[in-house]
Structure prediction request, 263 residues.
Amino acid sequence: MRVYATYNIKGGVGKTSAAVNLAHLSAAEGRRTLLWDLDPQGAATFLFRIRPKVKGGGKGLVRGRTELGDHIKGTDFDHLDLLPADFSYRNLDLVLDKAKRPTRRLAEILAPVGEDYDVVFLDCPPSISLASESVLDAADTVLVPLIPAVLSVRTYQQLTAFVATLERRPELIGFFSMVDGRKRLHREVVEALRAGPGRVAAAGIPAASAVEQMAVRRLPVTASHPNSPAARAYSDLWAEVGTVGPAGSAGGTVGPAGSAEDN
Prediction:
């Protein structure tokens, strides 16, 4: 099982869009894929038409009162399951603070489903916190969406420096999101960061109405507009960063299946 996290200190940079589309692409390849929506706002959960509720909330999962597998829901896509968001995740830092090994806790929670999934995506809320430290410890690869702006570059540098201090360091890959090639500043920032230290993906996600309409259609753009420039960009990104082993069994999803609406 390989764990990816879409994460940035800043909000509104395309974390959820990336998690949803890359998870859909992973599942479309036949890989058993799980997306855990860790953001209390529950955008990924909404997009997959699933009720944002986990019985016992984040406290139940962190304290071991409930098992991760008990809350996994099937989506409308083969091989793709979702662990929904819950509004209690807003207090995840407080709950983790009382755990014995708080920065290891999310990895420990994920461990029991390690044989059930080939790929796990963690869609993370924006912040630097105990919860985000636990995400960074659990992830093998952290995908960092970057708006082509000076402050985004600074944020990526801060994140890179922070990850360098960790005992367990995930692979950190930045990628540009909401790129408008007509803007000179966008072109200059993209060129500068790709030429600098750290890994930045060659694939970039364009600013596109198809991505904005995901919330209306409640579908990944890779499903609703598979031939659009945005969908092709996500496909290129996944081809670049999707370094996992052989695809899993094609024989259905793990966890409850069926229609996703209000599961």
Remarks:
- The longest strand covers residues 141-146.
- The chain has one domain: 2-241.
